[in-house]
Design brief:
By secondary structure, this protein is α+β, with helices and mostly antiparallel strands. It has one domain. It is 15% helix and 40% strand. The longest helix has 18 residues, at 45-62.
Length: 243
């Protein structure tokens, strides 16, 4: 997504202050200045955009597992066909577990091994949250939690999948939901970790935001039908588009 015009005059100090603000917003600082029973501060538009940017970046990292997963073991001792646990490798941005289920014959089909599937599920087990820590630079790394309940068609010959569904984003005692509509699913491809299309719908404190993917390392955050922010899907950093 080629958005060349961004606000200028952001020196290193300004970036560090901004990232510190993200740390406080996301509840990832060592000290907790908000008591459990206190009302959380209202998000600004920029803060809401940063939250959906972190969701989009995480989905661009997790979603491709529907295609790239090649596990050999089933979920439990009963050897349940087509049901696989997946633990994210240690030392990465994402820690925790998800479950992948594979079917042949679409959503109403039969369970099959992962390599024969034309439909898949990717989800966090009930009560489980995946933890994500992204380095936004300046030594600030927000930690937040995500849940997934995703589904979609898989085309093994083309090495693509179209994924829709929903989930939650949680941090610092607050939680927001996100939706990937069936009418505009995220399009994943085996040759790139960047979705080639699709949208994420996200609402937080009265802000309604849409992430639009188009196949490169950036995505746009659309507010009131205008692309207002740009996400770097490698880092999770969000930058306003110059008015």
């Amino acid at each position: 997504m080629d958005f060349k015009k961004t606000k200028k005059g952001r020196g290193l100090a300004g970036v560090l202050i901004l990232l510190l603000g993200f740390c406080l917003l996301l509840g990832s600082c060592e000290s907790d200045s908000v008591a459990p029973n206190d009302d959380l501060p209202q998000l600004t538009e920029r803060e809401a955009a940063q939250r959906v940017a972190l969701v989009a970046t995480s989905i661009s990292k997790v979603g491709p597992q529907v295609l790239s997963f090649n596990g050999k073991k089933s979920r439990d001792k009963d050897d349940v066909l087509g049901v696989y646990p997946y633990d994210f490798p240690e030392g990465g941005d994402i820690t925790g577990s998800i479950v992948l289920e594979y079917f042949f014959g679409g959503a109403g089909g039969n369970h099959v091994h992962w390599d024969n599937a034309d439909y898949g599920l990717l989800y966090t087990p009930k009560g489980v949250t995946v933890s994500v820590a992204l380095d936004l630079g300046g030594g600030v790394g927000p930690i937040f939690g995500l849940t997934f309940d995703l589904h979609g068609d898989i085309d093994r010959a083309a090495d693509t999948a179209e994924v829709a569904g929903s989930g939650t984003f949680s941090t610092g005692g607050s939680s927001n939901g996100y939706t990937i509509p069936d009418t505009d699913p995220i399009v994943l491809t085996g040759v790139s970790s960047y979705p080639t299309g699709g949208k994420i719908l996200f609402s937080a404190d009265g802000f309604n935001l849409v992430v639009a993917f188009d196949g490169d390392h950036t995505a746009g955050v659309v507010i009131a039908e205008v692309v207002s922010y740009i996400i770097d899907l490698n880092t999770g950093i969000v930058v306003p588009v110059e008015e």
